[in-house]
Structures are given as C-alpha cells and as structure tokens.
Design goal:
alpha/beta; six-stranded mixed beta sheet; two-stranded antiparallel sheet; 216 residues; Aminopeptidase; Pyrrolidone-carboxylate peptidase (chains A, B, C, D); hydrolase (chains A, B, C, D); thiol protease (chains A, B, C, D); 23% strand; homotetramer; 10 strands
Chain lengths: 216, 216, 216, 216
C-alpha cells in the first residue's frame, strides 16, 4: 500500500481573496508516485476548527508525512518552521472574528514541539534547486502556529511513523502588487518547492547537520 | 518603418554569475509587433564604457523607446526609476576594479534628469497585471544610475522623439537562494513586466496622475 | 559680525503630536560661539507656505549655513541628504489636506540641486562621534523635499556664500513606542548630531572623499 | 530580608568591543530599594559555561526575579522574550570558537519553556514610559537562548518563587555608527527600561491580557 502524504493549505484571511498556501497545495492534488500518493486538503482560518480538522485528517488518513502550509505575508522565502509553541496570541481576528490572547493551544500540553520533518535537509535541497529557503525559528502565534502545534501534538502518539511540520510561504505576486514593498514568489516555484519538501521528507533518514539558526 | 525599442541589460557584477536584467531582456530578443520591433543589448558593468555603449546605441538605432534594466539585489518589485542624478559614488568597484567617488557622470551636466517614460502608467499597468511594482525615487549612485543618467543626457537632444528610462528588478530566485532573506522574482514575471512596460511606453500619451512618492 | 546659522524643524504631521526635527532644533536656540550664532525656526508642514517661509528667512537672515531638519519615521540614523528634486508627489496630505501629485516644486526649475553642505564630512564626523549616520540619496517627494528644493533654489543666487542642505532624523523613542518595530534615536543624540553638523559645515572647506553611495 | 533581583549581561561577541547588555546592567549595580536589591553579573559568551554560571548564581543568590539581558544587533526595541527553546544552532562561533549545531541545551529537557516574567505587563509599562518595546516570539538559537533556556530549566524547580526571563536590547548608537542602517538605542533608555522591567516583575501579580503576538 502506498504511503500517504498529507498537504494542507488555508483559506484566505486578513482581507485577502486568495491564499498562496492553498493555491500551491491544490496544484499537487492527484500527485502520486511509486511509493506514495498525495492528499490535499484546505483548512479554515479558524482557531479550534482548523486544529480539529487536522486531527481528524491524521486519524482518517494515517499519513506518513504531513506538511501544513501557510501564508506568511512579508517573508521572502520558503521558510521551514522549526518549532510550534503552545500559545494562541492573535494580532488579528480569525475568520470567525475570534481573537484569542495568551491561551494555550492545548491546555496542559507541553510548551512546544519540534517539527519532525528533516528541516535542514529540506532547506538544503530547496537551495540546491535554486529556490530561496530558510529555517524559521517561529511560526508566530496565530492560526498557523495553532494548527502546527495541534498537528505535532496529535501526531506525537504515532512516534516516528509520522513526519510532520509546517512551511510558511510568501505572498503570490498578485497579492504583493497590492502591498507595495512586500516580497513574493511565483506559484510555480512554491509548487516546485513543496515537491522537493515532500521528496526530502520521504527519502532523508536523518537530518543533515548544517547551521540554520540565528543569534537572536 | 517600424519603431525601434531598445532594451538593455547588464552583465553580472558583485560576485554574481548571472544578472537578471540581462536574462529578462534577452528573453525578448526578436520580439516584434505591427508597430515596433525590439532590439536587446548587453552592457558591461563598467563606468564610462557602459555609458558610451548606450550613447552609440542611441545614435545607431535611433530608438523611440529605451528602457535600461538593472539588478537591484534586495528590492522586491519591478521598480521604475523616476530620476537619474549626476554623480558616481560607488560603494563597490565596477567590473574593472574602478570605484569612482563623487564624480559627475557628465562634467557640467545638469544635476539630474527625470525619466521620460510614463512611469506612473507603467507601475499602474504592472500592478493591474498582478505584478509587484513601484516608482523608485533613486537609482543609486553606481553603474546603473551612471548609464541611466547618460541615457537621459544623450537622448535629451532628441526631445520627445525618445522616451527613455530605467527599471530595476529583483534577484532571480536562484540568486536569492544564496542570499538568505533577500526577495526575488521569477524570470517569467520579469519578462512579462518588461513587455507591459514597453507597450505602455509606446501607447500611453501622457502619464497618469497617481501618487507614487514617499514622505522621505 | 557673527555668521548666522539657520536651523529649521517642522511642526508635527501625519497624526503625530510631536516632530523630532523641531524638538532637536529648538534645543539649540540661543546657541552662540565666537564665530557664529544659531537661529532656529519652525516650519509648517504645508506645501508652498513652508517653502515661502524658508525663502523669507534666507532673505531676512542672510545666513552662512542653513540646515533644514525633518522627521523620517522608519529610518534609523541621521541621514544627510545629497539631492533635492523638483517634484512634489505626496503619498499623504499635508497639514492643510493638500496632496500634490507630480507637480514641480518650482515650475521651470532644474530637475535637482545637490546639497552644498559637506555631506561626507558631516557623516564622517557624526560616526566618529559614535552617532549612526549616512548619506541619503533621496529626501522623498513630500514637504521635506519641497522645502529642501526651495532652499537650494533660493540660496543658489548667493553662490558659495551659503552652505545649505537637509538632514532627516528618526522618530523619538516615545514615537516609536507607538510604532512597533520602528527605529528611534534619543533627543540628546539628535541634538549632539546637529551640533556636529553645524561645526562641520562651518569649518570644513572642501568635502572629504569617501564612498557614501549605494548600488541601487 | 530584601528580595534579590539578578540581572545579567554578556561580554562582547561577534567582533564588537562592547556589549550593550552589560553596559545597561552594570549601570544598575548597587540599586536597592525598600523591598529588594539588585545584583548584577556578567556572563561569558560561551556555550555551557554561561549556562553553568547562571545555574550557580541562582543557587547562590536565590533571587526572586532574574532578567537575563542580551544584545540583539538589528532589532530596534526592548524585546521581551516569550519562550526559550531547547536547541543550540549557532550561526556564528561563540567566544571560544565553538559553533554548536542542532544540539539540545539540556539533553532530555522539554522542547521549550515560557518566560515566567509578566511579559505583556512589562511591554505595556515600557511603552507607557515612551520606550519602544515588544514581545518577541524567538530568542534565537545562540548563546542568548542557551542561557535563557538554562535559566528557565534551572529555576523551574523553584516554582513561582522565581520569576525569570530574557530581554533583548538593540545596539548602542556607537555600535550602530559602524553598522550603517542598524537601529540603536541610547544607554540611558536601556537602563530606564530595565528599571521598569524590574519594578513590573516585582509588582504585577498576574500578567495583563493584551495582544503581543504575530501572524507568522
């Protein structure tokens, strides 16, 4: 039986009419190779609901790899998140007008989870392919981090059977056209980057040892 | 007889092995439509030599439109330059190891020339097409500005017969992959943007009146 | 008779209740040394009116040095402007709700004027004193540039008798406290910087030859 | 008996000859009020050694409040760290030429600890006092985070008896003078900010509920 790779993107939020994470993810719908097939799903930009949806997807699909993807307007590269933290602290409201402040994603849960994707190997492979990429030390404190934390929490029971993590991607050019000065990335490059991330997550046994940190 | 549109890009500089301006411009080689045909040329990243080459091209080709294109590593959009200033003040050496400091591009020339392209209309058209773009208030003080100033100086004699200006473009993704944090743009979007700029320069009689400035 | 040094700052604009340029300038009221005395004046943030006020001050005071100072929210250092350009292109309205777009500061005037202050020597002296400083290639296209252009235009008749220019300064800390992420500078450092700029403008005969430019 | 407040700063690193964290902290040496007295200590910029020094200080002094302070060159405000993570991933070597990559700060320790300082109340009080401040979602992965994680780990045994955390501060102006474009803050403002942080940590029982997060 083929391994399942679950890729999720979000619906638009924060006055945008499009979300690059969903555009990039859905472009991979139906992607299947000898050893795996990809399932794509859209998540709502809603605290609670999105996390629950992810939990249900994990139980239903029993994926080997899960990569949640989200929009990071203002970032310039494919940023592979290192860590999910147990706090919701929203600078803006979610799509249901909820703005949680300093609440745990999972009451009683650990302060944080590290991604179990080979994040350094992914960044290395992306750069080798000519795509701007970096390790990110924070996925923020909004719905992206919320889903990421929930994903790591809910997949922790599966041990090494699931490799999971989160990738933030920039605006699409058409979004940046309305945000003067904001960086962007072409959809084709985002899609190519996700393909590389999936392959790397499936193939690389232990992560590479390369600096990916920051002084502060 | 068809109008001539001259597009120039630069050779690589500053340790890069590629220059997006030349990649984007040369992709338009042979482009021809009912009313015009495009001529593309590469300029060296050399004070003096590049300016002279531009002057010779203007005299030889008698173009109706000239758009010089240059790499602006660190910028995130297609930035249409407003003004060329009469100073060379190089933060790095050119490709011949010359680093001019506070010398006029043209001794005795005016302090500056405004681009004669319809810069606001070009930015407007680029954004309408979903491409990130803005007016830039400074083309710097290196070889790009040097060529831009020379272009405006040498085309001034032709009055309104030549519309000329300069567009700075970001790194290509493969360059940004080696400059963590730097924004980039896909080559296809750069090329699409130049097509729009050329069409706008040929078709728009008087520039649109839209804010494109900055407070400082 | 003592030389006159004219320092101007602006009234608050853009929803601020304070303008660091006026705070810094008025701290130097009454400053007098053996060879010169300082006169400080506040300018309104108004197209036209501010330029006319500057013109009148020049005629009335016949200063040897004029340094107009303005707020550059978002910049991090004392930035000594190189060039004033002949265009008003306002991204926001002035304090009289006027938002000029693509109009010349002085119809028929040259495209630009270079500052006649020894800008490199000023930056050098500021850095030597431990103050962050740089040459800026654009004073923007709002009221600051408007006054700067007017100042250079109106002082041009006096030839080398007047050294004039513009220095942009950051937010004060109390302003930055309301603009998360914005850099700021302590008032005392701004004032110390203006003292150094005045001394340098009075004492340095010919500007130093140091790179102060940018590639783009 | 008076409560003890421990403030630590670092020795210079990364080619700097000064470290603002130590300059700011040592300015508070001998500070004592009715209910508390401050002890200041310098930590080396060394993996392992610095963490051990902090552990010894906690055991020796049994402080009620510990604020470790570190330099964040490039940041513009007093940034109060939310979370310390269990990873060393050094982009540069420490002062002993050690560059740890992807090693846990404490093998077997939890992925992260949240600061136990009232971080929102501190940011609120700083801004009220006109000082630029924000909550930071990442203290990086270098020696600052290393000490911060160690501090939280070693003070965890004391439960609510110790309030501990980390504040990153910008360059001093004299440092920024050598890093064109970098923001800075006057030493007096840093010191005033630390006083406010100490008072807030001692007086505020439960943290205020204000948004301090980011979308990504």
């Amino acid at each position: 039986m083929k391994k399942i790779v679950l890729l999720t993107g979000f619906e638009p939020f924060n006055q945008e009419s499009i979300n690059p994470s969903w555009e990039a993810v859905r472009a991979l719908e139906g992607w299947s190779e000898a050893g795996f097939r990809v399932v794509v799903r859209q998540l709502p930009c809603l605290f609670g609901v999105a996390k629950l949806a992810m939990k249900n997807l994990i139980e239903e699909l029993q994926p080997s790899v899960v990569i949640a993807v989200g929009q990071a307007g203002g970032r310039s590269d494919l940023s592979v998140e290192r860590i999910a933290i147990n706090v919701d602290d929203a600078p803006i409201a979610d799509n249901n007008q909820r703005q949680l402040i300093d609440q745990p994603v999972v009451p009683g849960g650990p302060a944080a989870y590290f991604a179990t994707l080979p994040i350094k190997a992914i960044v290395h492979a992306l750069r080798d392919a000519g795509l701007p990429a970096s390790v990110s030390q924070s996925a923020g404190t909004f719905v992206c981090n919320h889903v990421f934390y929930g994903l790591m929490h809910d997949s922790a029971d599966f041990g090494t059977a699931i490799r999971a993590g989160f990738i933030h991607i920039p605006y699409l050019p058409q979004q940046a056209a309305a945000h003067p000065g904001a960086p962007s990335m072409a959809l084709a490059d985002m899609v190519a980057g996700l393909r590389i991330a999936v392959h790397t997550a499936l193939l690389v046994k232990s992560d590479v040892r390369e600096a990916g940190g920051v002084t502060h």
